[in-house]
Design a protein that fits this description.
With about 240 residues, the protein is an all-alpha fold. It contains 13 helices and no strands. Among the domains are: about 50 residues, Winged helix-like DNA-binding domain superfamily/Winged helix DNA-binding domain (Arc Repressor Mutant, subunit A, Orthogonal Bundle), CATH 1.10.10.10; about 60 residues, Orthogonal Bundle (Arc Repressor Mutant, subunit A).
């Protein structure tokens, strides 16, 4: 209904209905507690994108599509925040010292310490503290085999991989076989712009409409027509 009407009230209802799910995913995937809020924001933005991009002609299971999209975006965020390569021992040691100092000052001051207070305690410059903070979050890569914490226990037998649902075969088939470059050549300029903004810039239909000077409903119709045109061309080329 939202894709057909563009109703702000409907999208707000969808976002509200999925808030708890996004919060649980953020909590379970966060390596450190301070990442939970960031992952929640990433998840909500991913949900917005899923609402706009979901195609009922490919799959009728929006829950699976939304969760898969949210988890994927969270994984990308975590990957951007971590290193998968070996880092110098000195960086790790500075990270441990930094965390210990923050914990000690938090207890001592009964609040979160400021950067200058942390720098004084470590006897380094404020710039060095910021550098250590930046490097500290890039030491450990998050594995899909990482055990998840359940709501009522410290740890359960599930891993992050268990959170990723099986995708509809249609998505995998399109992702694996479709030659996008040749299909895009058959589109007109407006169609290519809509596809670009939706799938490469991840803009909402409302943003695209404002950019192109057309209504959100027109964007939806162009997108639906373009996707069908690309599907037909793909089937024809596969024969």
């Amino acid at each position: 209904m939202y894709q057909e009407t563009g109703s702000e009230e409907l999208v707000e209802q969808i976002l509200e209905n999925y808030q708890t799910t996004v919060k649980k995913l953020a909590s379970k995937m966060a390596r450190d507690f301070h990442l939970v809020d960031d992952l929640y924001q990433v998840g909500m933005l991913a949900l917005l994108g899923a609402i706009d991009k979901f195609d009922s002609e490919v799959s009728h299971n929006f829950d699976a599509y939304a969760v898969s999209t949210i988890v994927g975006k969270m994984k990308h965020y975590l990957r951007d925040k971590t290193w998968s390569i070996r880092v110098p021992r000195t960086i790790k040691e500075m990270g441990y010292r930094l965390q210990k100092t923050i914990d000690e000052l938090t207890v001592e001051l009964q609040r979160s310490p400021r950067i200058d207070e942390i720098a004084d305690k470590l006897e380094v410059s404020e710039e060095k503290v910021l550098e250590i903070m930046e490097n500290k979050g890039n030491i450990h890569a998050l594995s899909l085999d990482t055990p998840m914490k359940a709501d009522n226990q410290e740890q359960d037998s599930h891993t992050l991989m268990d959170m990723i649902p099986d995708q509809d075969p249609g998505f995998l088939d399109v992702d694996r076989k479709m030659d996008l470059s040749s299909l895009l050549e058959d589109l007109d300029e407006q169609q290519r712009q809509v596809i670009h903004y939706v799938y490469y810039e991840e803009w909402s239909q409302r943003q695209i409409g404002e950019k192109l000077g057309i209504s959100q409903m027109q964007v939806s119709r162009i997108l639906r027509k373009t996707l069908q045109q690309m599907r037909d061309a793909y089937v024809k080329n596969s024969e």
